[in-house]
TrEMBL record:
<feature type="region of interest" description="Disordered">
    <location>
        <begin position="1"/>
        <end position="34"/>
    </location>
</feature>
<dbReference type="InterPro" id="IPR011008">
    <property type="entry name" value="Dimeric_a/b-barrel"/>
</dbReference>
<protein>
    <recommendedName>
        <fullName>ABM domain-containing protein</fullName>
    </recommendedName>
</protein>
């Protein structure tokens, strides 16, 4: 488990934008990594996760579903990434939740086949998404790890 508590967590608690970003648009796109906006702290101790929020342009939902499958195919080759979920909230609203044992594993994912399917395709993101994907860096505080979708998880 992560050892972060409110008392020793870095930052002032006011410097990060609200979650999720209440009014995203393409003006927030960052030229250093086009197609997505990174929100949250990096390299804090403990277990890590990403929540990536994506809003498809109308009519691009099926293409975004295929893009998520491409990412999933890469994730299967990353031994320290997981659990990993592609999510759908509404017809056009999608997400990814993925967890890592630590910051190094999250960095390895960023450079691995799953992460590269996302991070190196800014033209596709711009074509599919109504606004830049919102990539939230998270710390895992607590979790239930013995069951996955109602089934017991067997140790590797």
């Amino acid at each position: 488990m992560s050892d972060n508590t409110g008392e020793n967590y870095p930052g002032d608690g006011m410097s990060l934008p609200p979650f999720p970003n209440p009014s995203p648009d393409w003006s927030q796109d960052d030229p250093s990594h086009p197609g997505f906006v990174v929100i949250g702290l990096n390299d804090t101790p403990g277990q890590k996760a990403y929540y990536i929020h994506m809003e498809a342009k109308p009519g691009k939902e099926e293409l975004l579903l295929a893009f998520l499958q491409d990412i999933h195919d890469g994730i299967d080759k990353e031994p320290l990434t997981g659990p990993w979920f592609a999510l759908r909230y509404s017809k056009t609203t999608f997400g990814i939740f993925e967890a890592f044992p630590n910051s190094q594993a999250r960095h390895d994912h960023d450079n691995g086949p799953g992460g590269q399917n996302f991070f190196t395709r800014p033209e596709l993101l711009h074509d599919l998404l109504a606004y830049p994907a919102q990539l939230h860096r998270l710390d895992i505080l607590h979790g239930k790890f013995g069951v996955m979708l109602g089934q017991p998880v067997k140790p590797a």
